[in-house]
Backbone:
């Protein structure tokens, strides 16, 4: 049974922000984002060792051994390693609010805050989606998410970490469930060396701004940036359960539960770090319904934590994320 306690070996985004932000503003923004994003709540973070990413050494082969006879030696051997660099990208936005519009509303600071909140939500939505679907194969300026790493049943180096659902799949109405163990040596988010983590707003004050016709007006301007990346150091601690046809799931069926058991055991060790399972709203609703029948599905449980129901699978918390969609193509 997996541990239910969160590991403290890898800080969350809020932990890092609280340590690096001297005035508390960035920590407040991160806290707002984490309230809306279970993914960001549970994801672990680590400072990269490069200005544009993180380089690490990955073991590619173990040394060979031999059964030794008396009075006989054994051949020397060694392990093999390779170096991999994970790159960061910069998600950015620019806020411009007419100064007079702020004044009309009676409280300039409060009105600007409403626009800031919109940008915070936009970053949350885009980043959460990027961690699952963005690909540096097609756009090198983006982060490299999970799906493009495990995008083929037999065509990737880590195809054993992909479980093909037993539910018959077709069309473009599939989704995936992700099983992840966050730790400093498995899977984690990264930020560039020497740079602060999290969303960084830069208040540029009042500036002349051109409208669509090229005419200028005065606006409050805020420059928003987030330097971020994603690192999978050990693929044995991430598993994708794919090709879940959302139009073919039966409320009383057991195939998806069987698939989840298979995926659960593809993880090398759940005690390595902070374990989590991620799915979208459709799957979360299905699993919650399944968890009601504890006799039939003893692998699923529901606990009340902080006044909120938390569904667990084999002791691992399941988190709902809007970053996962119902419109994935069939993974082949």
Residues:
């Amino acid at each position: 049974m997996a541990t239910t306690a969160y590991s403290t070996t890898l800080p969350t985004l809020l932990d890092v922000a609280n340590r690096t932000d001297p005035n508390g503003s960035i920590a407040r923004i991160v806290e707002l984002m984490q309230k809306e994003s279970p993914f960001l709540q549970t994801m672990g973070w680590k400072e990269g060792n490069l200005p544009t990413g993180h380089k690490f050494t990955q073991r590619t082969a173990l040394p060979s051994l031999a059964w030794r006879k008396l009075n006989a030696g054994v051949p020397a051997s060694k392990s093999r390693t390779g170096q991999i660099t994970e790159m960061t990208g910069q998600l950015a936005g620019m806020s411009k609010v007419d100064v007079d519009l702020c004044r009309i509303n009676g409280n300039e600071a409060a009105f600007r805050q409403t626009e800031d909140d919109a940008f915070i939500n936009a970053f949350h939505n885009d980043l959460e989606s990027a961690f699952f679907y963005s690909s540096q194969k097609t756009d090198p300026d983006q982060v490299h998410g999970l799906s493009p790493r495990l995008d083929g049943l037999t065509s990737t180096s880590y195809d054993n970490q992909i479980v093909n659902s037993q539910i018959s799949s077709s069309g473009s109405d599939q989704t995936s469930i992700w099983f992840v163990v966050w730790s400093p040596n498995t899977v984690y988010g990264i930020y560039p060396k020497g740079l602060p983590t999290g969303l960084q707003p830069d208040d540029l004050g009042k500036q002349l701004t051109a409208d669509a016709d090229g005419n200028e007006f005065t606006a409050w301007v805020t420059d928003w940036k987030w330097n971020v990346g994603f690192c999978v150091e050990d693929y044995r601690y991430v598993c994708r359960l794919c090709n879940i046809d959302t139009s073919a799931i039966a409320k009383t069926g057991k195939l998806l539960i069987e698939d989840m058991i298979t995926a659960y055991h593809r993880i090398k060790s759940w005690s390595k770090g902070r374990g989590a399972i991620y799915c979208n709203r459709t799957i979360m609703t299905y699993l919650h319904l399944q968890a009601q029948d504890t006799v039939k599905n003893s692998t699923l449980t529901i606990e009340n934590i902080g006044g909120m129901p938390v569904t667990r699978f084999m002791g691992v918390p399941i988190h709902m994320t809007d970053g996962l969609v119902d419109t994935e193509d069939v993974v082949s």
Remarks:
- The radius of gyration is 23 Å.
